[in-house]
Specification:
The chain is 0% helix and 28% strand. The protein is an all-beta fold. Among the domains are: 8-44, no CATH class; 150-194, no CATH class; 223-276, no CATH class; 287-411. The strands form six sheets. It has a six-stranded mixed β-sheet, with no helix packed on it. A hairpin with a 5-residue loop joins strand 8 (170-175) and strand 9 (181-186).
Length: 417
Amino acid sequence: MADTKLIRDHHLLTRNLQLNGHYISNDGDDEGISIADNSEVTIDRNSTSTAEATTKGLAIDYDHTGSTDSDQEMIGLDVNAYSVLTTGGGQELYGVKIATDLRGSVVGAGTTNSFGLHVTSVGNQVAAVDWATAAYLKVSGTDTNTGLYINCEDGGNDLKIVSSATPADHFKIQVGAEGATIMSTNDTGGGIEADLTLNIDGLIDMNSAAGEDITLDSGGDIILDAASGITRFYLAGDPDDLCTLTVAANGVTTLATADSDGAVGHLNIEPDGHVEFDNCAVGFDRLEAVFGDTDVIESGGTNDTDIDFRLSNKYRLELTGDIAQMNLIFPDTSGNFLITCYILGGGGGDHDVTAWKVWTSLSAAGSTVAANTTDVMWAGGSVPEFTAGASTDIVSFYWDADEQQAYGVASLAFATP
């Protein structure tokens, strides 16, 4: 072994330096610690131990025992890798590079567990505020910054977080071929659900690729619990074209549609079978028609009145005089419709409708569309006359949306016996 000169400050070492049987030199020979000609420091530690023991290639035992109330930063191992002179090629800089390789020599004997990095961080709860962080990662300054890159081969557990109470209980993420990702929880005890809860201080945004579905496949109920009671369903993310499901106190539920551009947001129920209403009543909100109001059809006759059945199947109308033209505007769907007509006694109380006209759902102010059959088709072929004097008469219609024809029947003089 060549002699080594070690110069530090004003001290000159002209002989080999031996520490606990191992030399420090610069000739790159078989020393435990060597400083090679390219200024690298290499620790080459070989262990042939076969007994039950713990062996170490390098051990740093840093004890900080000074007690002070001044701010201090204590570091057991400080690595600073720095390179700013690269001019091309593929460059890689590692602050710390670790490789472990633990393999059994006998098939099926014993167990192996290889850790690339094993960190234990311990603190206490004595200070005013205490933290303990096993790993703190910070990256910046490049075109693409990645905080944590995991390449877990052979279909393993890319990320596994175990319960501090029972390590066998865990949450894990697995990424397979073509990026297929599975998030799962596990409870080893059985009989207790390993819940997955997301508590988000903000928006949860789930986006799938075009043409791809988002599937909720539940072994039990699927529960949507909105704090406002309103669940919204948008058209392709458009918040102006939507359907809302609103749940209020006592379970009162409202299903509504909305459209922002003046069109009608229809609600279609299209089951592959019949619709059954079990142990409940089904009804319509009765609206009050305005005598002499014809804002939609704008027909302009004496006391002409619009009845817009697009808004409800049931109307109430008070007649205080004769009506030249009753405009019935039907929806784009067949059904039964009704007007309860209250004939008020003032002015003789003998009030009638001269013409009953039929209009389609496309009608709007300034753009009206008459039905194929423009007048109501009455039973017996005659327009009914309302009851003279104060009375209540009901006029019922069946509207055939396919043929665009309205069939009418008048039931007159309703009164208690």
